[in-house]
Amino acid sequence: MHIQFLGGVETVTGSQHLVEAGGRRVLRDCGLFQGKRDEARAINTQLRCPSATLDAVVLSHAHIDHCGNLPSLARAGYAGPIHATHATVELAGVMLRDAARIQEQDAAYLNQKTNRQGLPAVTPLYTAADAEAALKLFQGHRYGDTLEAAPGIRVLFQDAGHILGSAVNVFTLAENGRQARVGFAVDLGRKDLPIIRDPEFMSDLDLLVLESTYGDRLHDDVASAEEELGTAINRTLARGGKVLIPSFALERAQEILYHLANLFRSGRVRKVPVYLDSPMAVELTHIFGRHRDCFDAETQALLGQLGGILQPGWVQLVSTVEDSKKITARDEPGIVIAPNGMCEHGRILHHLKHGIGNPANTVLIVGFQAGNTLGRRLVEGAPRVKIFGDEFMCRAEVLTLHAFSAHADRNDLLAYVRKVRPRRIALVHGEPDIRAALAQTLRAEQTAPVLEPKTGEVVEL
After folding, report:
1. 363 and 454 share a domain?
2. Where is 180: in which H helix or E strand?
């Protein structure tokens, strides 16, 4: 009985962990590695676990760094079950179809250059047909369900409190009269996040596989997010400007709508037009509405008062490009929520192109901004930025709200370990220096032996 750490180990993307007992093999997550184009392609095209050797896949949630390479697995011939919560099954359908579209578009764009240069054609990592093949393998489960993923490998689904449908999993392994329990908390959410319930605690673990993404730092208090959002909006409306919010389509966009519902209902912010300018976010938001059983008590209560939070009448759901252009042409105050969260592509670029030079406007950053992205340059206060190849003066206010994060911070992770009390801990899903800092803190507390596995390393149970 052992675990092999295949991906998302010394980095925060491309999560893959192989669990084996009695010759049976179950893959926990099959994420897409996201990074520089050539590096990402080299990693993603070489599946580290041959598809023919797998009995099953268990998926934690629908973020692309956890589910995004499932179409490659299907393309390689995998035809076994992919187990996930019911909400994750629906969300993954949207995410994987969109990822396949991006893969095909990227290949087509690159081939415009290769054709001119006489180079071999670039093939997409996978296609829409591969995504559909993977989606046919999904099987939905409820929180609290235990399934036999393979003989000798049973899996329990519990709420991770990270995004809608996200799960922590306990693997109970049996071989030759021996038994081991392994818990996966990758990714782990925060207490008191809006909409979803708090993370559930696993128990009686021989090994806890734990994320370390924010293992060296603390987030701002979740409770401050709404007030900070309201303050920023009111300041912008007083100037007669627009609030432009680059947002990830899954979870963050829905969180913003939740907070706006509270702010409008209480009168802390006057009602103005709100535009959700993303067909993908609109589709995901409808899925949220179909899984209200996953909502926490506060959200259920607000639903009772308003009749709808994620799809209220005051939100204009924008699907067509023509309607999106009309929003950019309007001068009246309003709030625009549009992808991409790091301002690298998507409709937010058009809104920024027309709005970044207006000092009455605010660009509200509500998520992590990776290096070398337009979002990071805005956060760092660049006086000029390029959008679609043209240079623009940054006259709009740029404000970052640090309370918006769906990942546990250092104190959240420590509290989780103290409650679960595992016999060993393996830290993954973190940059090396951050993971090392969390390992040092855990060792100082003498909670349990702490492992920092390398990519490809095998840990015996």
Report:
1. no
2. strand 178-185
Closest residue by Cα to residue 193 from 245, 136, 254 = 254
282 exposure class (CB count in 10 Å sphere: 0-12, 13-18, 19+): middle
Tokens of 206: 């021989």
Tally the domains of the chain. 2
* Residue 43's CATH number: 3.60.15.10
Fill in the amino acid letter for 242: K
The 3-state DSSP class for residue 450 equals: strand
Q: Enter the tokens of residue 56.
A: 């099953």
Nearest to 20 by CA among 167, 170, 171, 178: 171
Cβ 302 vs Cβ 328: under 8 Å: no
Q: Does residue 413 sit in helix, strand or coil?
A: helix
Do 210 and 77 sit in the same domain of this protein? yes
Return the CA Rg of the chain: 22
In the block, tokens 């519990």 appear at 158
**Same domain (yes/no): 27, 75:** yes
Amino acid at 332: E
Note whether 430 and 438 are within 8 A (CB).
yes
Instruction: Work out the number of other CB atoms within 10 angstroms of the CB of residue 332.
Output: 8
The whole domain housing 308 covers 224-400
Q: Does one domain contain both 53 and 188?
A: yes
pTM (2 d.p.):
0.91
pLDDT digits (tens, 9 = 90+) for 315-363: 898 888 899 999 998 889 999 999 887 887 789 999 999 999 999 999 9
Residue at a domain's end among 371, 400, 429: 400
Boundary of a domain, candidates 384, 400, 416: 400
Name the pairing type of β-strands 242-246 and 146-150: unpaired
The continuous run of DSSP H or E covering 94 comes out as helix 86-117
pLDDT at 308: 62
